[in-house]
Design brief:
Length: 71
C-alpha cells in the first residue's frame, strides 16, 4: 500500500481487520494480527515518513509498530 502518513496507515489497518500496523524505512507498511517478540530501542526508528516528514516511520531494518485498540 501507499500511505500518506501514520493516520492513513492506521485507517487502512483498522478497516482491514488487523490489530497491528508497522512502518519501515519511510515508505514500507505492514499489517498483522500478532507480534514477534524481537524488539529494539525506539531511538533506532529515525526515518521521517515520506508523506509527512514531521512523523517517524521506522528506520533501516526497524519497524515502528502501532497497536489498533477497539473503541
Amino acid at each position: 500500500w501507499k500511505f500518506k502518513d501514520i493516520l492513513h496507515l492506521l485507517y487502512i489497518t483498522l478497516h482491514t481487520g488487523y490489530q497491528y500496523a508497522g512502518l519501515q524505512y519511510s515508505r514500507q507498511c505492514f499489517c498483522g494480527s500478532s507480534l514477534d517478540k524481537a524488539t529494539s530501542a525506539v531511538d533506532d526508528c529515525d526515518t521521517p515518513c515520506r508523506g509527512n516528514s514531521r512523523q517517524i516511520c521506522g528506520g533501516t531494518w526497524r519497524i515502528s509498530i502501532f497497536e489498533i485498540m477497539p473503541i
